[in-house]
Amino acid sequence: MTESNAAAAAGRARSGAEEFTEVFNRVKAQVSRLIVGQEPVIDGVLTALMCGGHVLLEGVPGLGKTMLVKSLGEALNLSFSRIQFTPDMMPADIQGTMVLMETDGGGHELTFQQGPLIANLVLADEINRATPKTQSALLEAMQERQVTVGRRTIRLDEPYSVMATQNPVEQEGTYPLPEAQLDRFLFKELVTYPAEEEYAPILERTTGEREVVIEPVADAETIVRLRAVARAVAVPDVAQRYAVRLVMGTQPGSDYAPDSVGAYVSLGSSPRGAQGLILAGKVRALLAGRFSVSTDDIRAAALPVLRHRILVNFHAQASRVGPDQLVEDVLEAVQPPHTAE
Description:
The protein has helices spanning about 5-30, 40-50, 65-75, 90-95, 130-145, 180, 200-205, 220-230, 235-250, 260-265, 270-285, 295-300, 300-305, 315-320, 325-335, and strands at about 55-60, 75, 80-85, 95-100, 110-115, 120-125, 145-150, 150-155, 160-165, 185-190, 220, 265, 310.
């Protein structure tokens, strides 16, 4: 590559990085007009969208999980749909089905009526209330970016992202997500109670006479273009090795696993965990004005990327040791490798 070509490529990279940060902050500002606080969760949802990933939002009712995703849908000029899962919901209810319609000439023809899964941004409310059969239909859309109804296969338009919510307390009438489906979520974000000083603006925005209006500030074409910018961020060998070692640190029997992992973990993260760390690190690097991932970027993504990829055993449940504590143990035990290794 000549010097002029190299300079032009560097200029395009800087321009793409600047647009990425600008759009990210514009969308975040619109969502924050309605959502008070919860900045790490908002950042996580937007990061997953820019990575092409899915997010599982967990928290008790009333914390604004649904409102957050709806606000994101309003801030983006994307097709948006919401599915309220119930135990009696069937795959056809979310995928779509063939319907016999009457034609103008008095005849009949089969017409496909698409379901709410066919959208750019899908809000899957209370996902753990869906039966395994319905969850498997959602899994196909999440992983394969397609919906299969009979012999008909429909490719889903990009960007495509599923934002799912679940209540960690109420488990009656629910179907816990299998590990295979949990692994398809890039992040699991925990939505916590607001701080005392955040209640006043929450009440003002939700019970006041002035309605908060969120304006669309980005479209599908922009999101797809910025995803390519994020994937072009360089990953030094030291950052990649650190991501791999963190993932191996969650696997019992690994050389990098601390004693607590061996004692409390039945199943550690798959390679998708390393992929998630790298993708999230790329977005974090861009937002910091860098075009190269650091080990700090990888470390910052560890909790939301790995917490749902760790299956604890009965001993951990009896000792009240959760995945977050185990991820923290891994972060303490596994230090960033030296460049010279």
